[in-house]
Structure formats: structure tokens, C-alpha cells
Amino acid sequence: MKTYNSFDVAKQQVYEAAKILHLDDATTELLAKPQREFAFTMPVRLDSGKVAVYEGYRIQYNTARGPAKGGIRFHPDETVDVIRALACWMTWKTAVVDLPLGGGKGGVICNPKDLSDRELEAVSRGYIRAAADFIGTEKDIPAPDVYTNPQTMAWMMDEYETIVRKHSSGILTDKPLQIGGSEGRRDATSRGGVIAVREACKHYHIKPEKFSIQGFGNAGQRCALLHKEILGTGDLIAVSDSKVGLYNPKGIDVSKLVTHKLTTGSLAGFRGAEEIDRDRVLEIETDILYPAALENSINDKNADRIKAGIISELANGPTTPNADLILFEKGVKVIPDILASSGGVIVSYFEMVQDSSSFFWDEEGVNRGLDLKISKGFRSVFNALEENRIHSRLAAMVVGVARVAEACKIRGWV
Ligand code: NAD
Predict the structure, then answer these.
(1) 269: burial class by Cβ within 10 Å (0-12, 13-18, 19+)?
(2) Which of 105, 261, 333, 373 is catalytic?
(3) Residue with CA closest to ligand 1 atom 23
(4) Is 373 a catalytic residue?
(5) How far apart are the CA of 3 and the centre of ligand 1, in A?
(6) pLDDT in tens, 168-212
(7) CATH code for the structural domain at 183-356+364-414
(8) Does pTM surpass 0.85?
């Protein structure tokens, strides 16, 4: 099976957008490379008394529109190219929904499943000690990503404040509510992905009856719970996690499924559906498919077998460029990640605004702001799609890349 380098995929997308926008060579080169990269080692004392030395990264891909923004991922298969790709995608994502932010991303190569809570805290604090000089509310504001969460952010914020000797809650987002987090953040990514589906259904006059989800972590679970609430209709018929797939054409009881996953740590053994192969979930006929796992899940090996009406990409980079073309030819409507999964960074931005004024909004206000930003982003992308007769990812890239290129030009960089 072919392996995909996510950063090659991300660069190819930049080149395609730059071509449509007729960008000059210098601007294209600038946008196809990270602006700044930091790599560091982090010694961490384990519970056994031994010291493990982990590799950590922070990449600020482009800051022409504002400080870098993006998550920190703890993952054993993390590579610098995956982080580059994620930082690159964050740059277009913040631009597509018109936030005054750039794109960044970070990571630590470690397996959180092998670490105790104390060891995870030591990794989180070690990351901030190494990165403290090059992050900051006016430079780069991290957030959680895969295998990091609000608790990780709390440890990281505390370490940062210990270093700078003052309160600095805006240094990271997606913190717990008690220490400067925002209402609505937990649901934001999934809520944004479902709002984008609502807009697409209106645009294409589709009434969705069933939906499927690949990946049942933070994003997948919240999406399962919010889909019917926002669309008013639709049953979850297929779902997977890293171990197993589940299928029930009559609909799966979502709240029982979430409880099962949270109590057992797995989808396996759930009584309300048939267990199937994990990867078959992507191929089951459905109105809406939400990929909510990792990169490159939809590729040229399986794209032809995908029978979804609309794909709303909650995951970052779930579809390879070849798969995009196959899906486009098949008429599958894709809401690309840089729009569909932008709800998280939108509410992160709201959190920064609230922290800077120490004035906090209620959940209704946050959700209303999120809805406005996603709906406006949807219209920009679908206008670009219709103007240029291109597939939706390229349309979203055209919108994001044009805005960042314009900021680089106004600043006199190119
Ligand atoms: P998570 O770690 O909570 O969940 C990931 C889930 O994917 C887990 O259930 C895991 O078992 C499953 N998984 C892994 N490999 C799989 C496979 N091959 N097939 C099926 N399932 C598999 O992570 P998350 O926060 O839910 O993020 C998921 C994706 O959404 C990532 O790409 C992340 O970058 C993206 N994303 C998340 C947010 C957010 O706010 N959580 C924001 C933007 C984008």
C-alpha cells in the first residue's frame, strides 16, 4: 500500500491554488514553505526513574495575517513533515474563515497510551519549557490536537505562567472553563462541521437521512451527538475507531454508544450494532460521511468505493489529492477540512478575545458567532467553486491562499 507524505500533499494543494490565482514564483515559493521551525529535545523522568528523551517541534507556517495558531499533537508516529502539513493547513483554515491569525502546529513524538498522568504532565511542562521563548499571545498560541486535551493545556499554561511570572491565560486555548477557557469549545469543531453540512444540504437541496463517522474520539463523538440536533434529522448507521467498525442500518443509539466508548475505551463489544471491519465504514452507502480520525484515510485505494452524498472533513487532511479527483468525478460533494473543521480554531479565537478582555460570553453567544463565521466561510468557498469550476478543496485553497498572499504583498514581503 502506497504511503503518503502529508507535507507533499499539502504543497501540491498550494501549487494548484497558486496556479489558478496566477501567483508569481516568489509568492508561491514563500507559501509552499514554513516560515519558521523549532525542533528540540525534552528529557522527561519516567515513573521507573529512567529518563526518556523525546523530540518536540513547533512550526509557524505563516504569520502574515496574525500570530500563528494551531494544536500540539502527542503521537508515536508523528513526523516533522506531518507537523509541517498540519501547520500549512492551519494557515489556510484561519484565512478561509477570516480570522486575524496565521497557521502553526506542534508535536511530541511519544506514545501517550504508555505514559502515566504524572509522566504526561512532565511531557507537557517540558514542552513549554523548551518552547516558551518562541510562543506568546502576539507570536504563536498553541491548542490541543490528537491525544492532548484541556488538562494538557492547563499544565502547559501553568508552566508558562511560572516561567514568565505573571498571569497569561491567552497563551494557549481550549483550556478548562475554570482557568480562562470558553463556553462552547468542546463541541466547536464538530458543531462547525455539522453547520457546514446544513449549509451544503441547503445549497444542494439534499435531505439527509443517515450518516457515518470514521474515528470516535473528541470530534467524532461530539459530531454524533450534534448531527440530529442541528439538522433535525438523520441516524448514525456506521462508525469506527482504531480497532473496529460498527454498522446498523436502522440507526445506532448515539448516547449509549458514547457511554460505551467512554467506559470501555473502545467501540468493540457494543450490543446495538453489527461489528464490521474498521475500514469498511468508509465504504457504506450514506448521505453524510464525517472522517474524524487521521490523515490520508480516503485515498486512491478506496475513493472509488465511497458511496457518500456529502463528506464533511472533521479530520485534518483525510483525503489525498488523487482521491479528491476520483470523488469529484463521482459527484461526491466534499466540504474540505479547512472549512469543515475550522469550528475549533474559530472558538479558540473567541477564547483569545475573551481572555484578553477578561470578559466571558455565554454559550449561546459563542455558538451564534461560530455559526456566522462558518456560514460566511461556506459562501466564500462555494462562490469560488462556482466561479472557477473546480473541486471544493481547491476552491477553499483558492480563498485561503489568496487572502494570505494578499497579506504578504501588503506587508511588502513579496
Ligand atoms: P482523538 O484522538 O480524540 O480521536 C481520534 C479517533 O480516531 C480515536 O477514536 C481513534 O481510535 C480513531 N482512529 C485512529 N485511527 C483510526 C482508523 N484508522 N480508523 C478509524 N478510527 C481511527 O482526536 P480528535 O480530537 O477527535 O481529532 C480527530 C481529527 O480531527 C484529527 O485529524 C484532528 O487533527 C482533527 N481536528 C480535531 C479538532 C478538535 O477540536 N478536536 C479540531 C480540528 C481538527
Answers:
(1) exposed
(2) 105
(3) 146
(4) no
(5) 19
(6) 999 999 999 999 999 999 999 999 999 999 999 999 999 999 999
(7) 3.40.50.720
(8) yes
